[in-house]
Every structure is written in C-alpha cells, then in structure tokens.
Design a protein that fits this description.
- This protein is α/β, with parallel strands linked by helices and about 375 residues long.
- The protein has a single domain, classed as 2-enoyl-CoA Hydratase, Chain A, domain 1 (Alpha-Beta Complex).
- It is built from 16 helices and 9 strands.
- The chain has helices at about 40-50, 80-90, 95-110, 125-130, 160-165, 170-180, 185-190, 200-210, 215-225, 240-245, 250-260, 265-275, 280-290, 295-315, 320-330, 350-355, and strands at about 15-20, 20-25, 60-65, 75, 115-120, 120-125, 135-140, 145, 195.
- The strands form 2 sheets. Strands 1-2-3-5-7-9 form a 6-stranded mixed β-sheet, with helices on both faces. It has a 3-stranded parallel β-sheet with strand order 4-6-8.
- Helix 2 (about 80-90) packs across helix 15, helix 6 (about 170-180) runs antiparallel to helix 13 (about 280-290) and helix 13 crosses helix 16 (about 350-355).
- The two termini are about 35 Å apart.
- InterPro entries: ClpP/crotonase-like_dom_sf, ECH_dom, HIBYL-CoA-H.
- Keywords: Hydrolase.
- Pfam families: ECH_2 (PF16113).
Length: about 375
C-alpha cells in the first residue's frame, strides 16, 4: 500500500490516503483556509501523476481540512503573501508557482480517471482552479464560489479566463470583474458545480469515502450520488437580466456608464464594487474573458501565464497593481489600494494591449507542451 503514495514534500500541508480504489487528497492548511503553497501544488501534481499510472487507483477525491468551530473552507486560493514577498525580492519561485499551478489545473481537466472535488465552504481563486476540471463537483449550502482577483489587482487566472467564459450570457464578465461570490443554486445553474449534498450529510459522506468499501470508480461516484439532494436551498439568486444588460456592454467604461444610468439598488451596489477594483486590471480581465470564449483551455492557460508575468513585471514590482493590491489587503491591511491609474478614464489602451504580448516565443513558453 505504501508504494501507492509517493514521498510528499509539503510538510503535512497535503495529506494523502488510499481506501480501496480511491485516492484521497486533503488540503491541510486550515489556518490559511487551505490556500495553496508551491509545495502543495507540487505534492498534488506528484500524487495525480502517480495515481494516473497506477491501475489500483481508479478514482481520486480532493477535500479541504476542517476548522474546529469555524465554517469550512475547501480552498481560498493561492498564497498571496508569498506572491508579495517573492515579487519584491525578485524570487524566481514566483514564476515557478504560476507555471506549476497552471500545469496542475490542466492535469486535473485532463485527468484520465474520475476526479471528485468536495467543494464545501469557501472556494476561491486557486480553489476553483483545482475543482473546475473535476468529473464531479460537489457543493453544499455552505459553498461560496468566487474569482476575486480584481480586488488584489490581478485577473481571474487558473483557467478562469476559459471556464468563466463558458458561463451563460455575460455572467462570466460579471463574476470576473466584480469578484462576487455565488451560492449553490447559481453555481449549479451556471455550470460551476454538478451536484448538491446537504451539509448535514457531509460527515457521513467523507467517512464512507475514507473508510467504507470502495472497490471501483463507479462505487465512488455512487457513494456521492446516493446523498445528492435535487432541491438546493432557495437562497436569493443573481439578477441575470441585469447582468446581461450591463456586462454585455462593449467596454469597461460602457459597463460603468450603463450601471450609472440605471436607477436601481443592484446597479448602484455593483458600480460601487467596480469602483474599488483596479481599473487597469479590470480592463485586462474583460479582454481575457472575451478572448476566452474562442480559446482552448491550453491556449487560455498559456495566455494567463503571459498575463501573470506582466502583472508582476511589466511595470516592475514597485509599480505593479498586483503587488499594491496584495499590500492593501493582506500586508498593511489598510484596504486602501493606490491604483494607477485611479479611474477607468485613465486606462491606457496600449498598456492593456501590452499585457497580451507574450514575453516568450512559442518554443520557449513555459507551458508550450500543454495540449
């Protein structure tokens, strides 16, 4: 049995176990809402590659470690404090993080065996990256899904330019630009989750996956499906007609103008949210999602790797919108980012275009071999 679990290097931040034909991965960084470190990404990649090649493993499930007395978190994203420190220090590990994370995202989308994501609680950013490629995405009424990157001067990466673009209408633009979180009903409706299991049934579900008989991939899937509830909670749903009306506008300035002209509480609140985001990175984000509708996942990930390089390096770390956004949210915690430019009217179209120019030739691109 031991040879089914390769040596892991993340110092317990990833836990691996095997039950019958099922390999289980637990993200074990609960104090950080199971946010991904580079070591965790490497361990997940090693496990999935190992289990893909082992016939004894027929299915994989991934979950987040719980927090005693606190709401659950599947994965709150990447380790943004590391991003900040590495960018300022010129640490090459920053580039390694994104290259290896995007490779992991691609691996999950193309994993040859059923991969089940148990998305209980907070699922943000990098957590979406390791769940959206799953064969079975399981949600509870505690699930809250979001791509909040524009709030830190970044863009929705980890394949977000592709999977948000698959959402109906202009929901993808709304999710990408605002970073708003969505609950189970909307997530299921928009193709960001597959099934709903009530929170009261999660302990028994996890126990069965860990210790119940799991002789086949079909049995693993059946273990989940027998607890599926076809009636998710009737929480307030997003105003899709408003989303399409405003976020279908051709430019970022037009979206804001459309919201300003609408005399309703939803438009006012949404506009206020956008005015807190980085104008430059919202413009980059809007272009990414709209390009994403015509890209394969592999091409989107290559484009995102270009964009994330520019996010940290195009202006230098000291003038990076992303470094500034992380500073305001997680380092100084003053929640007062000094965006440059401060308003949408100051965004330089040439600077936005520069984000989409790859710093690598096709032969040199770090993700050149993704197909």
């Amino acid at each position: 049995m031991n040879d089914l679990i390769p040596p892991l290097l993340s110092d317990g931040q990833i836990l691996a176990e095997v039950n019958g034909c099922l390999g289980l991965i637990t993200l074990n960084r609960p104090q950080a809402l199971n946010a991904l470190s580079l070591a965790m990404i490497r361990d997940m990649t090693a496990l999935l590659n190992h289990w893909a090649a082992r016939p004894e493993i027929q299915a994989v499930a991934v979950l987040g470690a719980g927090r005693d007395g606190k709401p659950p978190a599947f994965c709150a994203g990447g380790d943004i404090r590391f991003f900040h420190q590495a960018a300022l220090a010129g640490d090459a590990a920053l580039g390694d993080f994104f290259t290896e994370e995007y490779r992991l995202n691609h691996l999950i989308h193309n994993f040859p065996k059923p991969y089940v994501a148990l998305m209980d609680g907070i699922v943000m950013g990098g957590g979406m990256g390791i769940s959206q490629g799953s064969r079975l995405r399981v949600l509870s009424e505690r699930s809250r899904l979001a791509m909040p990157e524009t709030g830190i001067g970044l863009f929705p990466d980890v394949g977000g330019g592709w999977f948000l673009a698959q959402c109906p209408g202009h929901v993808g633009e709304w999710l990408a630009l605002t970073g708003e979180g969505v609950a189970v009903g909307d997530a299921l409706e928009w193709g960001l989750g597959d099934v709903f299991v009530r929170a009261e049934h999660w302990p028994a579900l996890i126990e069965d996956l860990r210790r119940g008989e799991q002789p086949s991939a079909e049995h693993v899937v059946a273990t989940v499906m027998q607890r599926v509830d076809l009636a998710p909670p009737s929480e307030p749903r997003a105003e899709v007609q408003h989303i399409d009306r405003h976020f279908g506008q051709p430019t970022l300035a037009a979206i804001l103008a459309s919201l300003a002209q609408a005399d309703d509480a939803w438009a006012r609140a949404t506009r206020e949210t956008l005015l807190k985001r980085s104008p430059l990175m919202m413009a980059v984000t809007l272009e990414l999602v709209r390009r994403g509708r015509d890209l394969s996942l592999a091409d989107d990930l290559r484009l995102e790797r270009d964009l994330v390089h520019h996010a940290f390096h195009l202006r230098g770390a000291q003038r990076s919108e992303t470094v500034e956004g992380i500073r305001a949210l997680a380092v100084d915690k003053d929640h007062a980012p000094r965006w440059n430019p401060p308003g949408v009217d100051g965004v330089d179209a040439a600077e936005v275009t520069a984000f989409f120019a790859s710093p690598w030739s096709p032969q040199e691109h770090p993700l050149r071999d993704l197909t």
